[in-house]
Write a structure and sequence with these properties.
Elements: H1 4-18, E1 21-22, E2 25-28, E3 42-49, E4 52-57, E5 61-66, E6 72-77, E7 90-95, E8 99-104, E9 108-113, H2 118-121, H3 135-143, H4 150-155, H5 165-174, H6 190-205, E10 241-245, E11 248-252
Antiparallel strand pairs: 1-3, 2-7, 3-4, 4-5, 5-9, 6-8, 7-8, 10-11
Helix pairs in contact: 3-6
Length: 262
Amino acid sequence: MPEGDTIWQAAHRLHAALAGRVLTRSDLRVPRFATADLTGRTLLDVTPRGKHLLARIEGGLTLHSHLRMDGAWRVYATGQRPRGGPDHQIRAILGNAESTAYGYRLPVLELIRTADEAGAVGHLGPDLLGPDWDPEEAVRRLRSAPDRPLGEALLDQRNLAGIGNVYKSELAFLAAVTPWLPVGELAPDVPDRLVATAHRLLEANKDRPDRRTTTTRRPGTPLHVYGRGGQPCLRCGARIRKAELGDRITYWCPGCQQGPTN
């Protein structure tokens, strides 16, 4: 599933290509909205909210999408053949005279009233890359369920919006605890440090083509633990392990991280 920084990048690509221009092509390939025609309307802006994308359109409409595991938006010059996947995977097309955006494999795609956006994203916690980022509220929400494993709490978008499986594993490593440690057993200052680190990392990576959480510049070492099962830890040399946490694979270092292991 894309992380918040990936969604931020997607929103800004879409905004740069579509915002402030009149739509000359509109095709929503989901049964409920197949007859909707947005051509002739100006696309006003594309805003990320956690892992959600909100494309606001003249006339008080918002096209809401969520990429989940493998959805994607691709932008091409109008007239250029898209290459984001087979045509039958395209769920949405929005275009103007210069650029056309194609939404592939979108599990969530709905056209809603802009005034009703809260129904789609109002449940989300503070947005790590949003203008209204509130670290104190994010910490409060994390602490509200002390028996919950840290990894699950970090992935819950109602606590703070934008963390996915990559950052969940990396943040637990940087906090030196396993993702299975209950939130209530963290040292008192750890939730605040976790939230601050999450914000710093997503801010640092939102403008990078390749995500990085390490400070080493050795080739092939952008992340501490995620995706490195069986490889040596960059800090202590222990073999990185992986296991399921809920319905996700998580990674951790048995030498650097303290706490229960599934």
